[in-house]
């Protein structure tokens, strides 16, 4: 989605056809078309962090769908408050500030369509980045924390490479090599593949 080419994800239960939109950065008509095409009912919007490419369309989509926003961690409040200014700097129209209906903290649980996601606070790319982890499905939504073959950039305000690598190694990788994940950009991978091959995670 958008000129930033970020991943916006739809997740849902096949049984209930109830789900969530993850990181709606923009291109809302495409998101709504995908929702209609799958025949699902969206019950909430989830944000992994507050950067414009992941949250720029969240306020407008909340109004359109009439659903709450959950996430990220409150440490990203300043990013969400400044979305209009950030959008203007990048030449993106329509970005609105957003306050989630629920801030998420480490150890919280988010439910989507009957599936539970544990919340891990994983700062470094942004101070309030979170990972959504389904232990039952062995599946995670990691935002811009880790990618296939790379990790999130840390040269933006509030970023810390040391903090990010520590969060990945100490919090995310121990979830298990079998865990598949969708990152905020690029293709999917597994934590096991990244532990073995990601050049940023080798000692």
Automatic annotation (TrEMBL):
Pfam family, one: Lactamase_B
Keyword terms of this UniProt record: Hydrolase, Metal-binding, Zinc
Region (Disordered): 184-203
InterPro entries (alphabetical): MBL_Glyoxalase_II, Metallo-B-lactamas, RibonucZ/Hydroxyglut_hydro
Domain Metallo-beta-lactamase per the UniProt entry, residue ranges: 5-185
SMART domains: Lactamase_B (SM00849)
Stretches of the chain forming a coiled coil according to its record: none
SUPFAM superfamilies tied to this protein: Metallo-hydrolase/oxidoreductase
Domain of life: Bacteria
Record carries keyword RNA-binding: no
Cofactor(s) required for function per UniProt: Zn(2+)
Identification of the protein by name: Glyoxylase-like metal-dependent hydrolase (Beta-lactamase superfamily II)
Organism: Methylobacterium goesingense
């Amino acid at each position: 989605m958008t000129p930033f080419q970020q991943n916006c994800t739809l997740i849902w239960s096949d049984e209930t056809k109830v789900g969530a939109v993850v990181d709606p950065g923009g291109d809302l008509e495409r998101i709504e078309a995908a929702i209609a095409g799958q025949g699902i009912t969206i019950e909430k919007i989830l944000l992994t962090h507050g950067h414009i490419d992941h949250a720029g369309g969240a306020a407008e989509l909340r109004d359109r769908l009439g659903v709450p926003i959950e996430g990220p961690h409150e440490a990203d409040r300043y990013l969400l408050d400044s979305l209009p200014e950030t959008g203007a700097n990048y030449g993106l129209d329509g970005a609105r500030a957003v306050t989630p209906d629920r801030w998420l903290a480490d150890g919280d649980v988010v439910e989507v369509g009957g599936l539970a996601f544990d919340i891990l606070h994983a700062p470094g790319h942004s101070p309030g980045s979170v990972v959504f982890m389904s232990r039952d499905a062995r599946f995670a939504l990691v935002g811009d924390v880790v990618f296939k073959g790379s990790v999130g950039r840390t040269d933006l305000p509030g970023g810390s490479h040391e903090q990010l690598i520590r969060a990945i190694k100490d919090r995310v990788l121990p979830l298990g090599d079998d865990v598949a994940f969708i990152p905020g950009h690029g293709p999917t991978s597994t934590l096991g593949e990244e532990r073995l091959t990601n050049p940023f995670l080798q000692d």
